[in-house]
Backbone:
């Protein structure tokens, strides 16, 4: 019944958008050209593209985008309060603390999930197991965030059971009384925080009045046998085959050395020295930090206020300079067939004044830019037009200037050696689809907020 309700909800949201929609799906990259567009300030927009995609918005109350080529539909109602996304045959939605997702709306037996966080959860797993939970009364959840599985609870914290990293755990009056069983059928029972002990074929550990006394022994069956203990917050010691560590007032004063690394905290977090085979790190928190290595160069000042990073990985290079929150410059490099490095993507933001993005295929400039995130789909669809007073977009086909939500529009097309200039209408634009390029707002990075 709930599965049918989810499918019906998906259908209603898409139909509602289709009845009023003539616009383009939010995208980061130009793929098609504009067939028609109608705008009234930042409040109303309707757009149709040559690939059949549509976009409609009555901001900030409602927006709907449809992309038949990608088989994707997005509907927002007073975003971020309500949103629904349909991609291929999958559908997910959220409304305040309520949420739902369906792995295949065309298949009544597919997995799904819906609930009101954190109290109610109901669904079916990918393996076909039906489940529900009413927190904190009773519940069974096959999987949570890909980290925990087979979660059961009754009158939480009276009883809790779950599996994580191959280990099965039971708690009574969580977290005070617990029992653990791993894949080698080794068990331990603890009365937290007074006493606990655990032993398997790799190691054994115990604690008294946690966290004040803890100790571990790593057996010869491991590649790094030895012992470790800590009397918190006085002192600690690690003595293993490949690791030596001493601690005074942990974690403030520590020294550690392995076969590949040596680290000093004197005291943490204010002075940190870390040397390894691939990188040398110096931190004088919060004033200055640096990390110099084969694949990374990093500098920072004022903790997170200023950072510079140059990272090299798998034949590509990424460079970023940031003065939080006002300035960001990011460049991603790649290599052509001749092994020559070129800028695949160059992004600049001077917040809150403007952003600029350039690739080998197009460039885009916008002002103002109040969004502190490079790309967020929900913000682009529902809020960005309110502060976008001017945009400039350029491809090999032409250059477009727009101001005041299209009231002022100038388009210059490139036709060989001929350059033609056409001013568009104040609100209505019906430029031929074979002449006008459609320009996306951003490229390469996924939206942090959909």
Residues:
């Amino acid at each position: 019944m709930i599965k049918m309700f989810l499918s019906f909800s998906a259908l209603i949201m898409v139909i509602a958008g289709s009845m009023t929609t003539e616009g383009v799906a939010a995208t980061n990259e130009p793929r098609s050209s504009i067939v028609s567009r109608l705008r009234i300030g930042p409040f109303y927009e309707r757009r149709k593209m040559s690939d059949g995609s549509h976009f409609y918005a009555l901001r900030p109350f409602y927006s709907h985008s449809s992309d038949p080529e990608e088989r994707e539909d997005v509907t927002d109602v007073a975003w971020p309060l309500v949103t629904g996304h349909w991609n291929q045959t999958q559908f997910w939605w959220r409304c305040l603390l309520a949420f739902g997702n369906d792995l295949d709306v065309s298949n009544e037996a597919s997995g799904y999930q819906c609930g009101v966080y954190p109290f109610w959860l109901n669904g079916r797993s990918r393996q076909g197991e039906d489940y529900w939970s009413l927190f904190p009364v009773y519940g069974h959840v096959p999987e949570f965030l890909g980290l925990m599985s087979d979660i059961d609870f009754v009158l939480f914290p009276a009883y809790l059971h779950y599996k994580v990293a191959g280990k099965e755990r039971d708690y009574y009056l969580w977290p005070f009384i617990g029992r653990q069983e791993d894949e080698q059928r080794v068990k331990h029972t603890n009365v937290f925080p007074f006493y606990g002990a655990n032993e398997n074929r790799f190691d054994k550990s115990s604690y008294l009045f946690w966290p004040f006394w803890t100790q571990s022994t790593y057996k010869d069956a491991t590649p790094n046998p030895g012992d470790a203990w800590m009397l918190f917050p006085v002192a600690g010691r690690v003595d293993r085959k490949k690791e030596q560590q001493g601690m005074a007032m942990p974690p403030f004063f520590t020294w550690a050395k392995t076969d590949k690394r040596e680290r000093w905290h004197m005291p943490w977090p204010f002075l940190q020295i870390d040397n390894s085979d691939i990188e040398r790190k110096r931190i004088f928190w919060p004033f200055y930090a640096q990390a110099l290595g084969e694949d990374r160069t990093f500098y920072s000042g004022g903790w997170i206020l200023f950072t510079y990073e140059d990272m090299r990985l798998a034949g590509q290079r990424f460079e970023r300079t940031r003065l939080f929150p006002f300035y960001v410059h990011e460049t991603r490099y790649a290599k052509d067939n001749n092994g020559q490095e070129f800028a695949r993507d160059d992004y600049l933001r001077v917040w809150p004044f403007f952003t600029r993005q350039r690739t080998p295929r197009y460039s885009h400039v916008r002002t103002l830019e109040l969004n502190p995130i490079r790309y967020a789909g929900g913000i682009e669809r529902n809020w960005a037009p309110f502060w976008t007073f001017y945009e400039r977009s350029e491809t090999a086909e032409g250059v477009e200037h727009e101001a005041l939500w299209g009231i002022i529009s100038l388009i210059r097309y490139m036709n060989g050696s001929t350059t033609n200039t056409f001013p568009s209408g104040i609100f209505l634009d019906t430029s031929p689809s074979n002449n006008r390029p459609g320009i996306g707002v951003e490229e390469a990075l996924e939206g942090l907020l959909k």
